Amino acid sequence: MNNKPQKFVSSDPKYAAVIAALRLPSDQQEAAIEKALQEGCPNRDIAKNGFQVNVATQEVAYHGELLPAPLAQKVFSLIEQNLPVTLLEKFWENLKKNPSYNSVRELYDFLSYKELPITEDGCFLAYRGLGNDFYSIRGNTSTKVIQGDVNSQGQIYNGVGEHIEVQRNCVDDDRNQTCSPGLHAGSWDYARDWSQGKMVVVKINPKDVVSVPSDYNCQKLRCCAYTVVSEVEVEIFAAATSEDGKALEDQSFQEEVGNRGKVIDRVQKYLSRKAEEGIEYVSFRSIQSCFSPDCPSMAEITDAINALGYYWFIDDGKKFVDLS
Fold first, then answer.
1. Of 104, 122, 140, 197, which cross-links 91 as Cys (Cβ 3.0–4.6 Å)?
2. Helix-strand-coil split of the chain, %, nearest 5
3. Is 198 helix (H, G, I), strand (E, B) or coil?
4. How many CB atoms lie within 10 A of CB 143?
5. What is the pLDDT of residues 34-81, one digit of tens each?
6. 63 three-state secondary structure
7. Tens digit of pLDDT for each residue in 170-226?
8. Closest Cα to residue 234, out of 216, 243, 247?
9. 8 A C-beta contact, residue 122 and residue 240
10. pTM value?
């Protein structure tokens, strides 16, 4: 493309768009590919949204303000996963509402340990280890609970969908007090070590973070509110999720990805049928013809056969699949 080689691996959603463009006459293919990639990039106008990205220094500024390293990393992760960097805007707005300077600075330490997903509504996800009954492992009867079910030992019920809130001044803001009152959440590793049966994902608004204790490599935090999103068995690695914790995926090329999947599936069925008939060699042209009248390109047929792992060869200028 533009006299420079471009590499697209089959696991990349853009790959299907490239393959689809090869249906066109050869003199139109490059322009079609470039157009598809440009339209499928949600961050092509990143500067217009207030973001300035320096790949060399791994720094990101938002409306002229340099973002702390954990948030800069989040921007790069969103770009890598082809998700809009504007997802960070709401998070930044919520963070600015946190009334404590120290709380904000300590939150960066927590986010630095392991990148956690942010949500469309400007929050972030963390984890809680619970008992089998979804109650917290420990309780504190002196904590004033504004919302949530509490038992006589001060333990709070963390069922899916529960929004839990305690009075902020009941949460210890001294990070040197490593085990102290407040709503606790942490990294996957930290929460798993505490779990006595159940693991849940909690959604935390950055404005509600109070402190990040200095022990455990800053893997845990204390906050005054969170919402229990879901029960979980594996760690979430998505850069961003929906408000209810479902991973956001690049939707730019879903139609092409779906069409590619249909071609691969149909080629598989056709070749399976031929193998059952005892046929050893099938030409690419015959595979292409089975789609008539809307036949995919030869590039799409080749892609499907490669994806299915069949051995193929060229004989007298024609391509054949070996089914023997």
1. 122
2. 35, 25, 40
3. strand
4. 17
5. 888 777 787 888 888 899 999 899 999 999 999 999 999 999 999 888
6. coil
7. 999 999 998 899 999 999 999 999 899 999 999 999 999 999 998 888 899 999 999
8. 247
9. no
10. 0.73
DSSP readout, 218-275? Answer: G-EEEESEEEEEEE-SS----SEE-TTSPBP---TTHHHHHHHHHHHHHHHHHHHHHH
What is the CB neighbour count within 10 angstroms for residue 72? 20
- Block residue for tokens 């139609």: 255
In whole angstroms, what is the distance from residue 127 CA to residue 138 CA?
A: 16
Q: What is the CA radius of gyration of the chain?
A: 26
68: DSSP letter: P
Beta bridge partners of 96: none
CA distance 173 to 182: 9
In what helix (H) or strand (E) does residue 315 lie, and over which residues does it extend?
strand 312-315
Nearest Cα to 57, choosing from 49, 47, 48, 66? Answer: 66
DSSP structure class, residue 151: -
